[in-house]
Fold this protein.
Amino acid sequence: MTPASLERRADLQAALLRVAQQDREALRIVYTMTSAKLHGVCLRICIDRGAAEDVLQNVYLKVWQRAGSFDPARASAIAWLCAIARNAAIDWRRSQRYEDPLPADLAETLVDDDADPSAALAQDSERAQIFRCLDELEPVRASAIRAGFYQGLSYPEIAEAMDKPVGTVKSWIRRGLMQLKECLSREQ
Amino acid sequence: MSSDAMPDRSAMAAELALGLLEGAERAEALRLMLADPDFAAEVEAWRGRLAPLYDGFAETSAPAGLMDRIDSLIDAELAAERPSPVVAHLPARSGGNGWKIATLAMSAVAAVLALALVLPGPAVEQTLPANPAMAVAQLTGPIDGLLLTARYDSRTSEMLVRVEGMPVTDTEPELWIVPKDGQPRRLGRLMRGGVTRIEIPEGHRKFIDPLSNLILTMEPKTLPDPDKPSAPTVAQGRLQRI
């Protein structure tokens, strides 16, 4: 990690800890530092721009309410924030059930192996490991795992988008995750 | 599933962390998180493993003006929940009513401040501002929907703890305070829902300060060691004086 990114990380953590003390100015700082990232998370999963905006708004209200439970020893500030955004976006998606068909282009985005375009942005080798390990997997397994993580899809949704039985997709993902775990422990 | 490369439970931990589970499967996984410390640790380990993947979400500028809207929402929430002096002078209510009102406003610690003023006790007869000898905390953790709200009143040395969203488990919720020395001190067992009233032991009262965290662990029915948690933290929150 570069000194600049370390400094940024420390600044974000400090601001989030101040939000826990109900510091409104600190919430603005957290927003300025992270809203583009969290908007990206919400938009990727919700797809719908208006929904992503609503979810993002609620994410920062949750941050305001829950910052007291942020523990720097357990997660980085950005991971903690991204997790709130991802969970909120997934909750929205799943509340939209699903007489609506999946978007027509979903299958294409599923097999887009550029789904992690910022692998190069993984700032240090430890963080970059998981991208290397994903690249080692069979492409269908990696695609299915990426679809779960980046698009917030459930097993049936991934199966539908990949046009495979749910059992097949489940097996791909479980085997892929096992390989991922082995790869990560090997490289540590 | 024997054909899979991972034991079912490990797979479920990974699937929960990845967000693949829905409905009954997800409920079962959340229940296990509270009941089984090993499973909870495995889910946490998977969340840690997957966290670098967040780098893969592209940044997209947020809509202009959104932060101002968020600010307005927080302002509106606080204004709606701030008690008028008339409310502050209402006769004492029963504790049950007070908490029923409290649930309407549980979304911000500042709201709890407001509610502290309408809750029963000698303070009801006092005028604003708030008694400084109050402290509040909200506890959350990896279990979606699990929320604890604690309010401590130094005049009575009592802590009221409201529990919402606790899945059914074989284990029991146990509340601890962790002061700045990092050593947890036991406060007591909580009911799985509703409000538990805990009298804080005299030796622990000095720990009620803004450097302390409250943590929740899920313990066996017979606590293995009353001096330290035997299970991982499932929810936590920092105390704040109000």
Summary: Residues 24-46 of chain A form the longest helix (23 residues). The radius of gyration of chain A is 18 Å. Residues 103-122 of chain A have pLDDT under 50 and may be disordered.
